[in-house]
Design goal:
mainly beta; 7-stranded antiparallel beta sheet; disordered N terminus; 9-stranded antiparallel beta sheet
Length: 420
């Protein structure tokens, strides 16, 4: 009986996939696929694990794998804010590429500032391997492992690599980034080593009010750049009231290793009006940097109170024309959480970004005045965490002994802002 049912479901799913390939409007592919596998989490997981099904003109392979789409049925008839879908790139480190939501009075909105999947494929598939996927953190919500932000060091003669030290061990890292304004800017490492890493194991399962995707990256020593071996598990859970992203890094090697985890999501302002958009950032101090091109920390932490960088008020502060590429620390927690708010009064839109892990020590915020978004990065570590400028300060890099694991977790919740 079960085998007959599973066979019928499989035929139904394969028929749906065949129709997708021939469909004139390929953008409907995720919805058709979901319809084909409703009520069968096992079959949905089997289809997802192939990582090759579901590819189409509108859903191209990116990093060798098509995007996956988590879906749920709306339940409020548009009367309440609720999440609708999440799109993930398993070919690029499980980048949480897009989230959609219903906002009363506004309809369906995109939570992230991202291009279309077709545009992303053109950008990312054309990127040279030597850049190690850095363009992935220019869109969506790239996950950053085994460190977030910048790392400086002694450059090799050809400028392709740098060396730095951690606990007396020499780390050799790819120097893939530099400032854009100065042609002679110093090259450095940035945002970890999984930006273009393909997911090794992937499954999608139904949850109580949506779907959850879990990917495992058997990262090993991250291509020879890290002192031990690591398995990285990334899970994204879509529900009506919340989207959760969870990253667990486990040291499966024989040596101690440093571990910093974060992400790089571009949160959109649905109204498009950046000046009136507000941020609440519970950070009492700001890391001084040498300039906004290199963005290298000097090791000095500056109080934000009564400065233009003070976003600590409960209802936040408007962005106006301020440029931000800054790291906030000395974080105040609410019920144990680091909560950043994105508020767009013109769209009656609010988003809580809740950092649930105790190890989250800093929030990097990138918000250029000409763009209708703010990248808000809750992360373990300060920028350039191995630098001597920090003296003996704890810079947020966790030491994982063999067999140990650490988890980074962030939850997104929608809300309707109240008029002040």
């Amino acid at each position: 009986m079960h085998s007959t049912r599973n066979a019928a479901l499989l035929c139904l799913a394969l028929a749906a996939l065949a129709s997708l390939a021939a469909a004139k409007h390929a953008s409907s592919a995720p919805l058709l696929l979901a319809a084909a596998v409703v009520g069968s989490p096992t079959l949905r997981s089997t289809i997802a694990s192939t990582a090759d099904t579901g590819a189409s003109e509108e859903n191209p392979r990116i990093g060798g794998k098509p995007a996956i789409h988590l879906l749920r049925k709306p339940t409020s008839n548009g009367a309440e804010p609720e999440f609708l879908s999440a799109t993930i790139l398993p070919g690029h480190g499980m980048n949480l590429f897009q989230i959609t939501a219903n906002v009363p009075g506004k309809g369906e909105v995109q939570v992230f500032a991202s291009p279309s999947l077709k545009e992303a494929a053109q950008i990312l598939n054309g990127e040279p391997e030597s850049s190690r996927g850095v363009l992935s953190f220019s869109m969506g919500g790239a996950f950053l492992v085994p460190w977030a932000n910048r790392i400086r060091g002694q450059l090799s003669p050809d400028g392709r690599f740098l060396t730095t030290e951690w606990h007396g061990k020499t780390l050799r890292l790819p120097a893939v980034w530099k400032g854009k304004a100065n042609p002679n800017a110093e090259r450095h490492a940035i945002h970890g080593l999984i930006l273009n890493r393909k997911t090794d194991n992937l499954k999608i399962e139904a949850n109580a009010d949506g779907e959850t995707a879990t990917g495992i990256l058997h990262a090993g020593d991250f291509g020879g750049y890290w002192p031990s071996k690591t398995d990285v598990t990334i899970a994204v859970s879509l529900k009506g009231k919340a989207v959760e992203a969870t990253i667990t890094a486990k040291n499966i090697g024989t040596e101690d290793e440093p571990m910093g985890i974060g992400w790089h999501p571009y949160f959109a302002f649905p109204s498009g009006d950046r000046k009136q958009a507000r941020l609440h950032i519970p950070g009492a101090e700001l890391a001084e940097v040498n300039n906004y091109d290199d963005v290298f920390p000097t090791g000095e932490l500056i109080p934000v109170k009564s400065t233009k960088y003070d976003f600590t008020a409960p209802h936040g502060a408007p962005l106006n024309d301020i440029f931000l590429d800054d790291n906030f620390s000395q974080l105040t927690r609410s019920n144990g959480q680091v909560v950043v708010d994105v508020i767009d009064p013109a769209a009656s839109y609010g988003l809580h970004i809740q950092g649930l892990s105790n190890e989250i020590k800093t929030i990097q915020v990138y918000a250029p005045p000409a763009k209708p978004y703010a990248a808000i990065e809750e992360q373990f570590n300060f920028a350039d965490p191995f630098s001597p400028v920090w003296k003996k300060m704890d810079t947020g890099m966790v030491t994982l002994e063999p067999g140990e694991a650490i988890t980074w977790k962030v939850r997104l919740e929608l809300f309707t802002p109240q008029n002040e």
